[in-house]
Amino acid sequence: DLDECAASPCKDHQYCLNTDGSFSCKACDASCVGCTGEGSEKCKTCASGYVKEDERCTDIDECNLPEKVCTKENQDCVNTSGSYKCVCSEGFEDNDGTCVQT
């Protein structure tokens, strides 16, 4: 078997999987910018919103950072994979970017 992966035939956001007589390009984990294999522990570098922790890229919980990321009144932070979103607290709704009581 010829290792076609030695020539790095895949795109930046993929890794090469050598198979018998061939190869395939597989997508890197969403937490990676470039990777050497499957999973968040094979990242070359971590994507924005992720940090290297115990040899793998893990999501940063922006909602638990010392500095608040959702600063408007009556607004809550919701952590998402690689990011976060600001939503109006229960009993409030968004009205042109302001959370007003419903």
From TrEMBL:
UniProt family annotation: Belongs to the CRELD family.
Alphabetically ordered keywords of this record: Calcium, Disulfide bond, EGF-like domain, Glycoprotein, Repeat, Signal
Domain of life: Eukaryota
Gene: Creld2a
Organism from which the protein derives: Oriolus oriolus (Eurasian golden oriole)
Gene Ontology molecular function: calcium ion binding
PROSITE patterns, per database record: ASX_HYDROXYL, EGF_2, EGF_3, EGF_CA
Domain EGF-like: 59-100
SMART domains: EGF (SM00181), EGF_CA (SM00179), FU (SM00261)
Name under which the protein is recorded: CRE2A protein
